[in-house]
Amino acid sequence: MTHSMTGFGQSQSNTDSSTLVIEIRSVNHRHLEISMRLPEALAALEVHLRNRIKQSLSRGKIDVHIRLQHSDKKPQSTGINEGHLELILARLRHIQNAGGDLVSPASAAEIMRLEGIIEHQTIDLTTLGATVQTTFETALEQLQASRAGEGLALKKTVLSRVTDITAQLEQIKTVFPMAKQGFEDRLRNKLAELSVEIDEQRLAQEIILFTQKADIDEELDRLEVHLREMRAILETAGPCGRKLDFLMQELNREANTIASKSIHTEITKASVEIKVLIEQMREQIQNIE
User: Do residues 143 and 5 lie in contact, with contact meaning Cβ atoms separated by under 8 Å?
Assistant: First the structure.
């Protein structure tokens, strides 16, 4: 199945003491790039969560945001680190004695705000870790479903452009024989206007030489092969964006060659339209995983 690199997944879990919210966003990127924002208390789980993303996704810029909000109904218990407080007070007294009146005394509120004075409740990672992993899996599944849904829309768009290009190729195949005949007719008319005796053998040689230079059968055949390959790739499972991007280069090369060899305005118009369709496909394929 074709997957987009753009998607969003969210999941939430509630406990007696906290609310856990996990959001995962992804956009297109040449490689897999993961950015995670999570509470410091859950930092030990980051490696596992990153590995789960790597196992599930192959390309895209992935942003993971994990929020842990403690319930007001059951606030965290706190305490004072007595040992650290004594150390801070001793240092403050030393500074006060050394500075005298030049140093204003610190208030209790200022001391309480110092790092390490207040001891917060330690989070039980054994219980919360399981909740985080379950919630994360749900968000990841939503992300994958979102990417799959958009991938289906991208697939339909690309296949529609493939059909349009095929129609333009058929138009070129119809026009090309008439263009060759038109060249021969114009050459004969020009020679007739100049009252020059026509050497049929020499004329045939000129027509053959012209036809060889203007021949686009190989380019048309390669374009058709590439288009069939695109259809096959879009029907296969797994990431296919890189393969399709490579085929865009090949399609564009063949279209440029046809335009450079054009001997008829209709062929020129068709080759330009093919290049426009290829560019439209390229824009869509940039977002396919």
Answer: no
Alpha-carbon distance of 45 to 66, in angstroms, equals 11
The answer to whether 132 and 66 are in contact (CB under 8 A) is: yes
DSSP state of 121: P
The domain locations on the chain are 7-74+123-148, 78-119, 153-285
Amino acid identity for residue 222 in this structure: R
Q: What is the pLDDT of residues 51-100, one digit of tens each?
A: 999 999 999 999 999 998 876 554 454 577 788 778 888 888 878 787 77
By CB atoms closer than 10 A (0-12, 13-18, 19+), residue 24 is buried
How far apart are the C-alpha atoms of 267 and 216, rounded to whole Å? 10
DSSP state of 120: E
Burial of residue 236 (CB within 10 Å: 0-12, 13-18, 19+) is exposed
pLDDT tens, residue by residue, 169-227: 999 998 887 777 666 666 666 766 666 676 677 767 766 676 667 788 899 999 999 99
CA dihedral 207, 212, 215, 217 (to 10 degrees): 120
3-state secondary structure at position 198: coil
Alpha-helix residue ranges (DSSP H) falling in the chain: 46-56, 82-99, 108-112, 125-193, 200-214, 217-235, 241-260, 265-285
Q: In 10 A of CB 25, how many CB atoms?
A: 18
Cα-to-chain-centroid distance, residue 222? 28
Q: How far is CA 190 from CA 118, 175, 183, 184, 212, in A?
A: 100, 22, 11, 10, 21
CB atoms within 10 A of CB 289: 24
- The answer to whether 146 and 5 have CB atoms below 8 angstroms apart is no
CATH hierarchy code of domain 7-74+123-148: 3.30.230
Give the position of tokens 């999570």.
Answer: 38
